[in-house]
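Async update (no meeting this week)

Hi team, since we skipped the sync, here's where things stand on the single-chain job. The sequence we agreed to prioritize is pasted below, unchanged from the tracker. I ran it this morning and attached the output directly underneath so nobody has to dig for it. Comments welcome in thread, and please keep replies under the output.
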Amino acid sequence: MKLILSLLTFMLALPYAFSQATAPDLEVVLADKALQGKCTIVGLDRRADGNMNIIRPSFHDGVFKLDDPLGEGIKKYFVCIDQDYWEVYLKEGETLTFTVTPQAAGKPKVSYKGTLAAGCVMNDSIRSYYSYPKYFSLTGDRSVALQDNEQKCKNLDKYYALLQKMAKKVKPQEFKEQLEFSSCCEYLRYKVALLSARLRNEGKDVTQDKEFQDLLSWIDINDSRYESYSLISAYIKGKCKTSMDDDVIQFSYEFLDATSKYLTDPQVKRDLESQIAVLVFQSATLEEKEDFLKHFEQTGDQQLVQSLRIQLESAKNTEAGMDAPDNEFEDKDGNIHKYSDYKGKYLYVDFWATWCAPCKAEIPHLAKLVEKYKDSDKIAFISISMDANRSAWEKMIAKDNPSWPQYIFNETQSARASKDWGISGIPRFIMISPNGKIYSSDALRPSDPNLIKIIDSL
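Output:
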């Protein structure tokens, strides 16, 4: 009898267990066949083989069902349709139905159904309410932040209140907390920037403005999560009387003093010190760099101090008119070359790597320069890769087949060149004069139109 009851219990439970095991994580409902062909789903976690988790959905009767191993927690996926995309959040054992309705014009309309639906709707609202072009210029025009500034701040207050109400419907709790934190940080990021711009434009001291300082108090400056929204650095800037735009050096001193006064997390402190050091070493004169380093040595991270000393020494050794370090580098066949191989011409050198997106963005501009001056016997262009993965470099130049010489540093050569020229980041460009002297140890990028004017003048 006990055996029969056990079997009955197992059989009754079977349909439920089977439905749970086979329930899809994501169900995309899209009737439009043209859009179906333009649909792609991308997961942030890479597959076991290291490749991107890209899914090309196959629709049946307008529906695609995704069953992907999600593991623990909430996972984010992107549903991309043509030029549009949406962030969808999935959890093991929970099905999210994502329905897409094409519109006559503009972005398709979407709706969500499932336990995580309210969270997905709230996330869409966060992306909409805190859209950068609503508040600032995409072209870097700082005056845009001052246009309708007070109304923009009021809108942010309104949006934040709406999102707080939306959060009450979000499940599960971990998803709710994640979205509430995101909403709060986005609100702070935009409002701090707008309010700071207005106060500084009016010539007011932000460190004495109560509304602004109360807003900064929301930020836990020793919780590194806030810096993913640039809020810890915004907090420290808000403790500086001097604006970065008015006086970089004075601002840098105040910034360092504020990091020492307010920050207790050593990694957060070091990260911000590194940010301000990079700013100074990119824009300051040699004398200003020396003064900054003397100030920085008192309270800064000593490992970073040592790195800056090396960079300062490199800057001293690579001033215009000094003998250029004659570094060695290799071609694809392993033959050794030097800058002095090009003596008698101006030499424009591109330091780059295959993994560096800004480096690769400069390549088309460099190709145009090479084409423009291809018949000139007065200037030469070379690119030197700083890739540790030589095969990645070889594959890329074999595929792209650039028309100018391509070289690579080995590990020892790369370390030597980085020290000689003070290279702390790429892309980096240098120019060497025909006589082997340094023309510029930090030349303009190929994308800068002023570079052509300089070359033509030479």
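Quick observations from my side:
Residues 1-21 have pLDDT under 50 and may be disordered.
The radius of gyration is 28 Å.
Reply here if anything looks off.
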